[in-house]
Amino acid sequence: MDSMKEECGVVGVIGDAEAANLVYLGLYALQHRGQEACGIVTASPETPEGTPAPDGRFYDHKSFGLVSDGIDRDILSELPGTSGIGHVRYSTYGGRLFQNVQPFFFRTSIGRLAIAHNGNLTNATAIRRELEIAGSIFQSTSDTEVFMHLIARSQKQNLRERIAEAMAQVKGAYSLVVLSKDRLFAIRDPFGFRPLVLGRRGNAHIVASETCVFDLIEAEFLREVEPGEIVEIDVTQKISSYYPLQKRKSAYCSFEPIYFARPDSRLFGSDEMYYLRRQIGHRLFKEAPAKDAAIVIAIPDSGLPMAYGYAEASRLPFEMGLIRNHYVGRTFIEPSQAIRDFGVRLKLNPVKRVLKDRSVVVVDDSIVRGTTAAKIIKMLRRAGASKIHFRIGSPPITDPCYFGIDTPEKSSLLASRMTVEEIRQFVGADTLAFLSLEGLKQALGEGSQKSFCYACFTGVYPEETPPEKAT
Fold it and tell me: Are residue 140 and residue 287 in the same domain, yes or no?
C-alpha cells in the first residue's frame, strides 16, 4: 500500500445522557478512517438549568491530531447533552485548515444545526461558485459546507425536506449525520459509496461509519442506512425513513472491503471484512500460485487477512516475515542520505531468520505508486529472501477516485502507465500477480442484491458524466 487514504468517519448518538462519551468512543473505534483531526458537537433541547431552549443548546470541541490527543476527560465534561455527532478526518481536497475540521455548526431560519460528512461531492465546485455569486460566504474549503449552505438556503418548512432538496442538487459520495436540538438525521447518497450503519444501545440509537463502533460501546447492530435513504430519529426514539431520490443500482466502494474498513466491521450486507479478505486470499492463490514458494508473509497490517487466506489455500506455512511498529507518528527528521529507505524502516522491519534463503510469497492489498513496495522488496532481499513472489489482492489501480478517497493523479498511479511486467521490474519482485477484476467481484459477492464501484480499476465511473474534481 502506498498512498490511498480514506477521508473520514462519522458517529451520531441520540437519547443517551452519556452522548459525548459514546461519540468519543465511537471516534476512537474509527480512528483508522482519519488521523488528521477530530471533533464532537453535542446538543440538548434544554438549558443546563433544565428550562426549554427554543433553538436548543449546542456544545462543541475540535482539534487537530488523534482522538486521544485532542479530547480528554475535562473536555468531555464540558460537552453535555443527550445527543451528539462526531467526526475523524483525513483531508482529501479540502486541505489541512482548522476551518475544515468537522463537525460544522451553523444557524438557520429553522434553528441551529451541526453536520459531519464522509465522502466527496463531485459537483461541489460548481455549486459553490453559484452560491458565492448569489451572496453566500464560505468559511472553509470543504465540500461539506456546500451541503450546509444548501440546507440553510432552502425555503422548505422542515429539516427533512431541506435535506432532501439538497440531496437532489449534489452529486458524488456522502454519508452524513445532521444534528438538530431534538433530532438526528443519517443520510446516504443514492449509490451508497461510503458505509453508514444504524444501531441501538438501550433506549438510545447510534449511527456510525462502521459496525466496529457498536462492538466497542456494546450496541446492537440493526441495519445499514440504505443508499438514497434519510433516517430521522427524534428524542422519543421514533425512527422515520424516507427515500426522496430515484432508486439507483448501488455502487459500494470496493476499497472499503479491500482496505479501508476495519477487519472486524460488517458492511454492505456481508460478514466481517476479515472473512472477505481471507476469501480474496483464497482466490489470489487460485489465480496465481507460486510453485516453488516455502512460506507466505504479509505486508502488515492491511495484507494480513489476505495472506492468511493465501496460505490456507496453498497449504504453505504463514510466517511473520515483517514486523510493524504501531507507534510511529510524525518525525521531524528523515536522514535520506544517512539511512536508506528510512520511512519504510521506521514502520517495518524484517525477521531475518524467517526469510533467509527462502522463496517467499509476499501478499499486500494494492499497489498505488509502487515506491513503498519497491523499498520493501529491497529490504526483504537484504534480509536474505532467495526469491520473492509478490501477490496483490486487488486489480491494478489505473484511475483516480473522486468519491472520498485521496488518490494520486492518474499520472502518478503506477498501473496507469506500466504493464504488469514493467511493474514487476520496477518493484524488483521475481514474479508479480494481481487479483483479476472477476476474482474480486466473486470474493465480494457481486450480484443482483449488491454491486460495487470499481472505477479505480476500470476508469468507468457510476456518475453519468465524468466527475468534477473539487479544489
Answer: no
